[in-house]
Amino acid sequence: MDKDKKQNTVSAAFDMIFSQLRTMGLVLKHTFTKADTVEYPEQKPYLAPRYRGRIVLTRDPDGEERCVGCNLCAAACPVDCIALQQTIDDDGRKRADFFRINFSRCILCGFCEEACPTYAIQLTPDVELAEYDRQNLVYEKEHLLINGVGKYHDYSFYRHSGIAVDINGERKAKGDAQQEKPPVDIKGLMP
Amino acid sequence: MLELLFKLLEITVIIALLIPIAAMLVWVERRMIGIWQDRLGPNRVGPFGILQSLADLLKILGKEDWIPPFSDRLVFTIAPVIGAVCVLMSFAVIPFSPSIGVSDLNIGLLFFLAMASLSVYSVVLAGWASNSKYALLGSMRAAAQTVSYEVFMGLSVMGVVLLTGSFNLREIVLAQESGWLIQTQFLGFIIFLIAGIAESHRLPFDLPEAETELTAGFHTEYSGLKFALFFLGEYLSVTLISAMSVVLFFGGWLMPEPFASWLPPLVWFILKILIFVMFFILLRTSLPRPRFDQLLSFGWKYMLPLALINLLVTAAFKLGGFYG
To answer: How far is B255 from chain A (nearest CA, A)?
Structure first.
């Protein structure tokens, strides 16, 4: 019994020593493995097309602003970094009078993109937002607006909606939109 | 007179080389740990990041040299100086090459042991003067660790003294002309190395500064130049323990014949030291830190008896005439 115990201690001691030496050997092996580091400024990592980075405001295929200033994005924003004001043009088109995103607050969560009913606000795979001056992180509408359609190439809100507006200088009356029936003539329904 | 001036110049040159080497070791260590952890380590400042230590130095010089209001000002200030000075003093007895070496002290080995013991004052005083709980705990651990590991550090090198018949480090090196002492004193070497790691507070025996438990241990309250002095002391003592291992067990500047003529003795000595330094860094990356009581019981229960057995067996063989 006593002898057994003694032998166990000795073998345990050798196990311990072997374990330490093996650990060191395994670490030493890593001298020849390649580092996992991506040396960032020179070597950029791949960002997926749907990566959530800098926010942009897109235009519809006709080149008009998609944003109708509905405020849903500002309501969805968990950090309240979006501020905007709606305005209505003479032809009935709604736009944002000003649109401001404070990127020093923005957490790039993408809730605004999910909330947007017109696909106007979208996140892009660009994360290089650093500035020396904090004030420069407040983006106004002219900084946010891009000349493209973003992720949804054919979608045009006003061509779907039943609002009378001018599209490319042509009047689109009520009932002309896609999948929209002409307005019902209430008087014609009389018995 | 001229001889004295020459000696002073030699001392100045050795110190002027040792301190930058200690600073470079910080970079070497970070780079090697990076490589062993599949990272790159600092590689931005200068070619391969070689100027990283210089950047660190400039930064640390720009820091406020703050002395906490609750500390003992005088002791707080001299503690880091004691640490660095004690380690630097030990280099006085190291024979770097046949012609280079500050002092041929007759009791060089004892001087080294004495300086190693004195350097614990730096840690103890720093922890006490900081007047903070973490620092005190760290210095308490340092005192216990150093006192217990010193005992068998001294005993482990007695085998070397027995075989060479001298405390003079230069003579110890010269006595290894026929063969390095590692052949006969392997156990002594292992014990000396373990004790040396504990003496220089390096991982896995870095309990006095265990970052994960004691923030920074005895130098928690230190910043700026004083903190840099502690760092300097630590890296110098890594170099010192490596140099002592080479001198005592690996024949100092000596090399077996086909290799000896390839490079000058000093270069061989430095290369051997570098291998040991790398080993120290490898230890740091791979081994976890033991618990404090495990550390002490390991020292007293296993290392001390082993050192005694090693000494007794060596003495018996010497008496039996095995070593001629």
So the answer is: 26
**Could A28 and B36 be called an inter-chain contact, meaning their C-beta atoms sit closer than 8 Å?**
yes
A20 closest CB neighbour out of B35, B39, B287: B287
Domain residues of chain B, as ranges? 22-59, 63-319
Instruction: Indicate if ipTM > 0.85.
Output: no
Query: How far is the C-alpha of B248 from the C-alpha of A84, rounded, in Å?
Result: 78
Determine contact, residues B235/B26, Cβ cutoff 8 Å.
yes
**CB-closest option in B35, B37, B287 to A23:** B287
The answer to whether A13 faces chain B, any CB pair under 8 Å, is yes
pTM over 0.80, yes/no: no
The reported pLDDT for the residue numbered A104 is 92
Q: Is A42 on the interface with B (CB under 8 A)?
A: no
CB A67 within 8 A of CB A99: yes
The string of pLDDT tens digits covering residues A65-115 is: 899 999 999 999 999 999 999 999 888 889 999 999 999 999 999 999 999
Sign of CA dihedral B277, B281, B287, B289: positive
Q: Are strands A82-88 and A138-139 parallel, antiparallel or unpaired?
A: unpaired
List the alpha helices (DSSP H) in B62-214. Answer: 73-90, 108-130, 133-164, 169-174, 186-199, 211-214
Q: Which of residues 169-208 of B touch A (CB under 8 A)?
A: none
**What average pLDDT is seen over chain A?**
87
Phi-psi category of residue A26: left, alpha or beta, with phi > 0 → left and psi -120 to 50 → alpha:
alpha
Cα atoms in the 13 Å half-sphere on the side-chain side of A98: 7
Edge-to-edge order in the sheet of strand A138-139: A82-88, A94-102, A138-139
A20 touches B at CB < 8 Å? yes
Q: Does A26 touch chain B (CB under 8 A)?
A: yes
Q: Which two tokens stand for residue B53?
A: 């230590």
Tell if the CB–CB gap between B38 and A20 is shorter than 8 Å.
no
Report the alpha-carbon distance of residue A60 to residue A148 in Å, rounded. Answer: 7
Search chain A and give the residue with CA nearest B284.
A24
- Tokens representing residue B160 in the block: 């070397």
Q: What is the number of other CB atoms lying within 10 angstroms of the CB of residue B43?
A: 19
**Residues B16-40 pLDDT 10s:** 888 888 888 888 888 888 888 888 8
Enumerate the residues of chain B whose CB falls inside 8 A of the CB of residue A35. 34-35, 38-40
Q: How far is A9 from chain B (nearest CA, A)?
A: 12
Task: Kindly tell me the burial class for residue A14, based on how many C-beta atoms sit within 10 Å of its own C-beta (0-12, 13-18, 19 or more).
Answer: exposed
Identify which of B158, B25, B2 has the alpha carbon closest to the alpha carbon of residue B87. Answer: B25
